[in-house]
Please model this.
Amino acid sequence: QVRPVESGGGLVQAGGSLRLSCAASGSIFSIDAMGWYRQAPGKQRELVASITSGSTNYADSVKGRFTISRDNAKNMVYLQMNSLKPEDTAVYYCNVGARPNSRSRDAYNYWGQGTQVTVSS
Model:
């Protein structure tokens, strides 16, 4: 019932920037964490960045270049990507850890469909 939808992907040249957005809609009681994952051809899906109410976490490969942020009032999470490199090329997925209603004792993970980011050299 929680439906994350990504936007903002596209084709950019190396050194350029993109800003990804993810909007979580549907029945949401609370969001515990939001994150961005990516999967490149031939590779496993990996965590790029995540954010909770008190902390952020980044993959070493993007630290200093990417910034994750969230808007709690709008149930949105963003990923500002600067100094993009060809190796950043991947499908980027939004993940939302949320409780759908007040009776849910546990949070569940919800995935978006992904948005393609392609960085040309």
Remarks:
- The radius of gyration is 14 Å.
